[in-house]
Design a protein that fits this description.
Jelly Rolls, 4-stranded antiparallel β-sheet, 7 helices
């Protein structure tokens, strides 16, 4: 039986927020309240006036297409490594040996911040790049830098929305373990199981995600009544969603909402997520209480190592 189509999005359900006041440091109480409501009621929202160049996005998307169109044996010369960098192959297995074991009908390419190898921080290290794709590398690094001001603006917005000072999240995001990924979804006309769609139902593991998606539909989010709702691309916006770390920090006040991707558009779909993670030593526990339910919080590095090991068995994270 085919997966039912989601209904079209009622825009009142996923808000659009002008992020410019947070970029400029002029956010009002109404601006903060808008983010607080979106984080609490939906867990997803669109941002406009984000100051990331549309031409840069178009250039990166073009270079990504050129990379993904290469033969599989060429792409597999730089397979994803235990630091979650490199090529993630099409139809990779996820959540292996768990009840939700599945294959995502997607391929991707990951980078992080280039840092020295550190035995105490095993997920840190240098990026790896495909040979002969210097423009792809250049565009990814330019995009990584271009999104940084938006990342900081959102950190400030989330802090204020939770009742903290504007710099309330500055410390845990010191030396952030953020990852940038390019996704390619081949078309999938009539999938019969959620265990083999573009991205299987999940909640993001990080603090929050900044997503650019092309003009093809595919992203769906699950509302609080369990209904899947399409979240189409809106020109000149990013989709922002709360991740599990932010939900834990806010003790459930902010919602890490399940979502999935099914590319039924009849053509290749591309998206560019930035998964924003805190630094290795940030404590993952409700803010103001580093011992939740009698147990100490995890360090972010340990939390991500365990989470990524389960989610991406192909990366061979030890």
């Amino acid at each position: 039986m085919a997966i039912p189509l989601s209904r079209r999005l009622d825009f009142s359900e996923i808000p659009q927020i002008d992020i410019a006041p947070f970029l400029e440091g002029t956010a009002s109480t109404d601006d903060v309240a808008a983010i607080a409501a979106a984080c609490t009621d939906v867990g997803f929202f669109y941002v406009r006036n984000h100051d990331v160049s549309q031409s840069l996005i178009a250039d990166l998307r073009r270079e990504a297409q050129g990379f993904f169109e290469k033969p599989m044996d060429e792409k597999m010369r730089i397979p994803i490594d235990p630091r979650l960098r490199g090529y993630l192959p099409l139809d990779y297995a996820s959540y292996e040996n768990e009840k939700r074991e599945a294959k995502s009908h997607q391929e991707g390419f990951w980078i992080g911040y280039d840092r020295p190898v550190d035995v105490d921080k095993p997920l840190e290290g240098p990026n790896i790049w495909p040979v002969g794709h210097s423009d792809f590398k250049d565009m990814m690094l330019r995009y990584q830098s271009a999104v940084e001001p938006l990342t900081l603006a959102l950190q400030s917005g989330f802090a204020q929305a939770f009742g903290l000072p504007a710099d309330g999240f500055a410390e845990p995001f010191h030396e952030a373990m953020t990852r940038l990924k390019i996704n390619h979804y081949p078309p999938q006309d009539n999938p019969e199981s959620v265990k083999h769609i573009g991205v299987v139902p999940h909640s993001d593991s990080g603090a929050f995600t900044i997503l650019w998606q092309d003009d093809g539909d595919g992203l769906e989010i699950q509302n609080k009544s369990g209904e899947w709702i399409g979240a189409p691309s809106i020109p000149d916006t990013f989709v922002i969603n709360i991740g599990n770390i932010m939900q834990i920090w806010t003790n459930g006040q902010f919602s890490s909402t399940p979502h999935r991707v099914i590319n039924r558009g009849g053509r290749d779909r591309y998206s560019i997520p930035v998964f924003v993670y805190p630094g290795h030593d940030a404590v993952i526990a409700p803010i103001g209480n580093n011992e939740a339910d009698g147990e100490p919080g995890l360090l972010c590095g340990d939390y991500l190592r365990e989470t990524w090991r389960r989610t991406f068995p192909v990366a061979n994270i030890q």
